[in-house]
Amino acid sequence: MTGAGAQSDVRSGSLTVDVRGLHCLTNGIRQHYLDFNHAAPGIPVLLLPGITSPAATWAFVAQRLATSRRVIVPDIRGRGLSDSGPGLGYSLDDYARDALGLIDALGLKKPIVVGHSMGARIAARMETTAPGAASRLVLADPPLSGPGREPYPTPLVSYISAREAASKGATVEQFRSFTPTWTDEQIALRIEWLPTCSIDAITKSHQNFQDEDIFPDFPKLNCPTLLIYAMRAKVVTPENAAEIGRLLPNGEVVGVQAGHMIPWDNLEDFISVTERFIAAA
């Protein structure tokens, strides 16, 4: 682990949650991560964000989950303060090895892994790469596009346009068309951090949504696995959810009334469903 970053206390309800920004060297790259409630006992949670979501933008979710446990949120390579630049790979296997390296580097010992969108794909691939690395998995609205399947419903240009607007200093009001249901604070945070997402990382990751098949991973997930799907989005349809439920050896499927960015649309239900599943561990 290398140099400690900022440390502060954040409020979550009536509790104070300690958060630290740190770096570690693993899988050949420098990974930055936020560490919430570092000293908490019990099974830690590794929270893996999506294609254009640096760790800071998920802090409001981590704070809620960290009131009674340790929560780690990394900047996925090519985003935030983690390594970015020419020569980096952005395949699902690259991301999975990063997650496994972080687990080893921090001594997390079979964490509960919660992944959203691309992060859910990473969580599934991580567990099939190293079976038993996680004690439980929460897969929130993973992109299911791939060879022979419907394309991912959000086009690449949408991500690139949002990043360009943020990079040119868009205001909260100007940016609201990209994120109409979010609070001003959440939009401001996204504007701040979106320019740290590498265009190369976004482009290659989006292409891999079409090229990499995640379905063969589902039958190999032997640990308890919860699929949460957004009922107001088209990323995981009810038919998809039923198919995945049949493929998971030890799975559960729950729909939440929300768009794809589930916690931004319906934080309380996302936390409730996730906490119930985590508590069973």
From TrEMBL:
InterPro entries in the record: AB_hydrolase_1 (IPR000073), AB_hydrolase_fold (IPR029058), AB_hydrolase_sf (IPR050266)
Matches recorded under Gene3D superfamilies: alpha/beta hydrolase (3.40.50.1820)
Keyword set, alphabetical order: Hydrolase
Ranges of residues in domain AB hydrolase-1: 44-266
GO function term, MF aspect, one: hydrolase activity
Keyword field contains Cytoplasm: no
Top-rank taxon, per record: Bacteria
Gene Ontology CC: one annotated term: membrane
Coiled-coil regions, chain positions: none
Protein name (Swiss-Prot/TrEMBL): Alpha/beta hydrolase
